[in-house]
Amino acid sequence: MIDLHSHTWFSDGKLAPLSLVERAHKLNIRHLAITDHDSVGAHHALREHPLPEGLELIPGVEISCRWENLEIHVLGLLINIDEPVFVDLLDAQQQRRRDRAAAFDLAMQRAGICGLKSHLQSLPCEAVGRIHMADFLIKEGHARHTQHAFSKYLGSRGRFYQKSEWCSLAEAVDAIHAAGGLALMAHPERYSMSRPKFRRLLDEFAAANGDGLEVSYSNLNIDSLKYLADECVRRNLWASVGSDFHSTDHHWMDLGRIRRLPPACEERAIWHHPRWAQVASPVTHAPARM
Ligand code: AMP
Ligand code: MN
Ligand code: MN
Ligand code: MN
Question: Of 154, 178, 208, which residue is a domain's last?
Fold first, then answer.
């Protein structure tokens, strides 16, 4: 199996890189991309370790971008993680995350909630995010669960909400290309917008030289899968698949738990892109479980 979207504790995943890789191996994944938010720390950490036999790690990242009033996530796959232009962009994104966390901390302190900063400093992560803040609010008894923390405090209508200053789509695509990688829009149907606005987003992403879409991912219904496959083929984009695994808490988002690409876009699968053959071995196994 193949899974090209997953997170470790270098961003908002719960597992250490080695534990993630071991879980992937146990679940029979042969090609795994770790795509932490604005961080490739897990890839650096894993360089020191031999991987389980038969598992191949694809270098990846998930970059947060601002488009109009929305946050759009762009996956970079098959990247050279040491490329300076790319490293500079991740450094800037991580600084934006620290600045935003400081603003959240201030807003919480004004409301009498103290300790966010030291909570964040105690974590192994490199890219601090709102999931970590949600964990803090739950630990301190201010929220019952993650969704509650977002709706009450952290989401765009939440009490402590701070706008994020992310890079643009074009900046993310350019940095990924500078690192030799392919840029794909992550989970395209998770951004709440109308279909006309979504098509405009796709137009702009393609105009910014985006390479493809994550066509199949966790919890996607068949109609959406077909819609995304059609958009992908119609625009001559490449197609990717990924669970967006963060932790073992949600079995429906487990590694490899993704539908196969529809026949219409099988030929456009990213593992048929010429760049794949430069960095990774051929995909000869069944590409997905469902
Ligand atoms: P950040 O990149 O730090 O702004 O955090 C965004 C992440 O928070 C997303 O990738 C989602 O995983 C998660 N998230 C965003 N909105 C919600 C929500 N309403 N409920 C739960 N998780 C959310
Ligand atoms: Mn996440
Ligand atoms: Mn995402
Ligand atoms: Mn993700």
Answer: 154
Total-model pTM: 0.97
159 domain residue, yes or no: no
Minimal-distance CA residue to ligand 1 atom 5: 130
d(CA 269, CA 239): 5
Residues 58 and 96 in one domain: no
- The Å distance, Cα 105 to ligand 1 centre, comes to 17
Beta bridge partners, 65, equal 72, 167
Q: Which residues contact 81 (CB under 8 A, 6 or more apart)?
A: 40, 43, 44, 59, 61, 87, 179
Domain that includes residue 188, residue range:
2-86+167-279
The CA 123 to ligand 4 mean position distance, Å, reads 19
**CATH number of the CATH domain containing 101:** 1.10.150
Instruction: State whether the beta carbon of 132 lies less than 6 angstroms from ligand 1.
Output: no
Q: Of the residues 6, 9, 12, which should be mutated to test ligand 1's pocket, given the most ligand atoms within 8 Å of the CB?
A: 12
Tell me how many domains the chain contains: 2
Which tens digit of pLDDT belongs to each residue from 94-146? 999 999 999 999 999 999 999 999 999 999 999 999 999 999 999 999 999 99
